[in-house]
From TrEMBL:
Keywords: Hydrolase, Magnesium, Metal-binding
Top-rank taxon, per record: Bacteria
The UniProt record lists the keyword Ligase: no
Cofactors, names only: Mg(2+)
EC number, UniProt record: 3.1.3.25
InterPro entries: Inositol_monophosphatase-like
Residues the record lists as binding Mg(2+): 18
The name this protein goes by in its record: Inositol-1-monophosphatase
GO molecular-function terms, A-Z: inositol monophosphate phosphatase activity
Length: 70
């Protein structure tokens, strides 16, 4: 996403150590992300969604992965 080659990233299960830095970067850059820590995924992992603001809602609806509130 950072280099502009994709509008989003979706993974049905990922561990926290593999995604937290990326979720922070996307969020700080104005993109939308899933509430990974709020859904209890720190220890056991969980779904990951990070997307550009223009496509995030559609990807969230299609994947059933909730986006974090802004």
């Amino acid at each position: 996403m950072a280099d502009g080659r994709s509008d989003g990233y979706l993974e049905l299960h990922m561990n926290s150590w593999d995604c937290l830095a990326g979720l922070l970067l996307v969020s700080e850059a104005g993109g939308d992300v899933c509430p990974f820590l709020e859904i209890g995924s720190l220890r056991d992992g969980g779904p990951v969604l990070a997307a550009a603001a223009g496509v995030a809602k559609g990807v969230s609806q299609a994947s059933n992965i909730v986006l974090a509130a802004r």
